[in-house]
Prior knowledge:
Elements: E1 7-17, E2 22-27, E3 39-44, E4 47-58, E5 63-68, H1 74-78, E6 84-88, H2 89-92, E7 109-112, E8 116-125, E9 132-136, E10 142-146, E11 152-156, E12 161-164
Parallel strand pairs: 7-12
Antiparallel strand pairs: 1-2, 1-6, 2-5, 3-4, 3-6, 4-5, 7-8, 8-9, 9-10, 11-12
Subunit structure: Binds ribosomal protein uS19.
GO molecular function: ribosome binding
Protein name: Ribosome maturation factor RimM
Amino acid sequence: MIEENDVLKIGRLTKTHGVGGEMIFIFTSDIFDTDECQFLFLKLDGIFVPFFIEEYRFRSDYSAIIKFEGIDDVETAARYKGTEVYCDRQLGGTEAGSHVHVDGLIGYEVYDTRQGLVGKATAIDTQTENILLFIEDNNGNEVIIPLHDDLIDQIDDARHTITFNLPDGIIDTGMAGTVD
C-alpha cells in the first residue's frame, strides 16, 4: 500500500474537458513531464490509487489537459473533479516545488468568489512547501494568500485572472497576511 511519505502532491484535477474523459490538471510541479512518469496517483477516500497517463498536453505553465487510461467519457471524468494528484516521490527527490512554474501568474487580477476583486498578483514565493501569492490591493496594501489547489476556483489565462474560493474573513481579518 502506498503511504503519504512515498508520494509528492503536485496538483489537482479541477474539471472535465470535452467529452472523451479528459480533465484540466492544475499543477505546482511539472515533474510528471518525463518518460519515467507513466502514472500518477489520485487520492481517493484517503488511498493513493495509480492511474496510468494516456496522454496530456500543456495549456500553460501551470495547467494541462490530461487523459488517464480507462476514463473515456465525461461522466466518469466528472467523478474526479477536485481530486488531489500525486507522483512517486522518487521522481522528484525530496522537494515537491522543484519544478514550479507559477511565476506566469504575476500580473494576473485576483478575485475571490464572494468578495470580488482582491487586487493584482505582484510576486510569488516558492521558497517553502507553502507557495504564497503576493497581491497589491486597490489601496496599495499587500495581501498574501496561500497559492493552494484547494483555494483556487479558476485560472483564466485568456483574461489573466485567478479566482479563489477563500474562507470567510481571511482577507478582512489579516489572516491572509495583509501588510500595511
